[in-house]
Backbone:
């Protein structure tokens, strides 16, 4: 079977496009997410709030009661934040433990400087602050888990 020049060019172009799509699918990294677990006790009127400089992430949060203390009135638990990148860049994300009503007090403040690269890979550049001893018995700054 003899192909004309136009058909050969079209077939070659299709092969190049297919190869490019295959390589793009194989070479790309899966978008990472970051998770941060912070001790919390909503019965005190305090809750963690996340504030970021720019819209680098979608941030979702949930509260989970401590299973071993679930029958104790006023027992705490943890707030779990999941950060999903939506843009490339560097941003500081501030987590404040506060009473959210007007005039409410602020307790602990944690600041995480986070970088997202073009492949939606996350790197925690720095962490500042610590959790007040009133929230947990041994105050330490929680690490953000990147997966």
Residues:
């Amino acid at each position: 079977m003899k192909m004309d020049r136009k058909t050969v060019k079209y077939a070659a172009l299709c092969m190049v496009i297919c190869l490019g799509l295959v390589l793009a699918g194989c070479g790309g990294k899966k978008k990472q997410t970051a998770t941060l677990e912070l001790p919390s006790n909503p019965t005190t009127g305090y809750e963690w709030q996340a504030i970021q400089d720019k819209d680098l992430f979608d941030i979702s949060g949930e509260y989970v009661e401590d299973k071993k203390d679930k029958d104790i009135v006023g027992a705490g638990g943890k707030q779990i934040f999941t950060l999903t990148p939506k843009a490339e860049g560097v941003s500081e994300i501030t987590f404040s433990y506060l009473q959210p009503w007007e005039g409410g007090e602020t307790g602990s403040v944690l600041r995480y400087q986070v970088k997202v690269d073009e492949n939606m890979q996350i790197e925690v550049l720095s962490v500042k602050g610590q959790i007040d001893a009133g929230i947990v018995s041994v105050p330490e700054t929680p690490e953000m888990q990147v997966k």
